[in-house]
Amino acid sequence: MEKEQYRSVIRFLFLDGKTCEEIKTKLDAVYGNPSPSMTIVRYWFNEFKRGRSSVFDEERPGRPADVVTEEIVEKVHDMILADRRTKVREVAEAIGVSYGTAFNILHDNLGMKKLSAR
């Protein structure tokens, strides 16, 4: 069962006037072991008590999880074709990603094992 579905059940029981302990008991009786912990039930009970109505996670600020796009891969590919002696560090600085991300683009996306030899 998805976490949003558990939260919906918690919200329903909260609106029905049940206490935290009663909600946890009902969840354990119906779902058994995979039901949320008492800490999670308490957290969502208090969230609904404060007036929250959504059972979905709120958007979080920060960097997107996936920074490797087709555009970036194409840009790296063009850089390498222009100068085969380009270093991974130079690629990373040019496209604005970490060394590890640049290495993964070269290795995983473009299938390149070695850029240049000394």
Automatic annotation (TrEMBL):
UniProt xrefs under Pfam families: HTH_48 (PF17906)
Residue ranges occupied by any Mos1 transposase HTH domain in the UniProt entry: 3-51
InterPro entries documented for this protein: Mos1_HTH, Transposase-MT_Hybrid
Domain of life: Eukaryota
Protein name: Mos1 transposase HTH domain-containing protein
